[in-house]
Amino acid sequence: MSAASVALLLAPAVSAQGIAPAAEAMPLLPEGFGVREVVIGVLVLLGAFLSMAAGVGIVRFPDVLSRLHAGTKPQVLGLVAVLVAILVEVPTWGVLTTIVLILTFQLLTQPMTAHMLGRAAYRTDHVRRDLLIDDELAEDIARRERERTSADDGS
């Protein structure tokens, strides 16, 4: 860097009286923008990121069971983050009770839906069995078939 370019860089800071006072510090947050808005923004972005991760997992994972895992857990956590952001924005009893109802139904139905879809995929042979670590459902199905055939032979 040459002496001329250094002089150009320092020119606004040097006045006729000497070195100019430091510029007023810029506020960390714009006016009318508080910590609450930052928290809400972070929660909404977290919810969006988790929902996007769920979508990417559904597209990228190899079989139905992995896709169900990706589609349920991050999606529920993303929903929780967005609902908490709504509660921070509008902290009323009506909003709180609505959020509790939404979370309750979501937490009750999402695992059951994933479980039923997983069983249906298993029974229709849409599961990659080489990716299964422990196949407990095969043992249950075999035991059920043995019980059924023994009951048919006995009658």
What is the topological layout?
Elements (H helix, E strand, L loop, with lengths): L2 H8 L3 E2 L2 E2 L15 H26 L3 H26 L3 H31 L12 H19 L1
Antiparallel strand pairs: 1-2
Helix pairs in contact: 2-3, 3-4
Q: What would you note in describing this structure?
A:
The chain has about 160 residues and is an all-alpha fold. α2 runs antiparallel to α3 and α3 packs antiparallel against α4. It starts with a helix and ends with a helix. The mean pLDDT is about 85. One of its GO terms (molecular function) is sodium:proton antiporter activity.
In a few lines, what is going on in this structure?
This protein is an all-alpha fold. Helices cover 71% and strands 3% of the residues. Helix 2 packs antiparallel against helix 3 and helix 3 packs antiparallel against helix 4.
Features of the shown structure:
mainly alpha, two-stranded antiparallel sheet, 155 residues
Span between termini = 99 Å
Q: Percent helix among the residues? A: over 70%
Shape: elongated
Roughly what fraction of the amino acids lie in strands?
A: under 5%
GO molecular function: sodium:proton antiporter activity
Keywords: Membrane, Signal, Transmembrane, Transmembrane helix
Family: Belongs to the CPA3 antiporters (TC 2.A.63) subunit G family.
Transmembrane segments: 38-59, 79-108
